[in-house]
Amino acid sequence: MVPSLRFVLLLAIGIIPLAIAPRPATVAQWTLLCLVVALVDWSLAGKPQKALIARDITPTAVRLGQDAISTLTVYNPTTSPLRLRLRDVWPPTAAASPEIGELTIPAGERRRMRTTLTPLRAGTRTNHTLALRSYGPLRLLARTRVRDVPGELQVLPPFTSRRHLPSRLARLREMDGRSSVNVRGQGTEFDSLREYVSGDDVRAIDWRATARAQDLMVRTWRPERDRRVVIIVDTGRLAAARLDLHTRLDAHIDATLLLAALTSHAGDRVDVVALDTAVHVHVSQHSGPTLMHELAVALADVEAQLRETNWKLAATTVHRLVSQRSLVVILTALDPAVISGGLRDVAAQLATQHTVVIAGAGDKELTELATDRTSAVAAYTAAAAEQTLADQRTAISALNSAGAHVVYGSESELPVRLADSYLQLKASAQL
Question: Distance between CA atoms of 89 and 37, rounded to whole angstroms?
Answer without folding.
Answer: 32
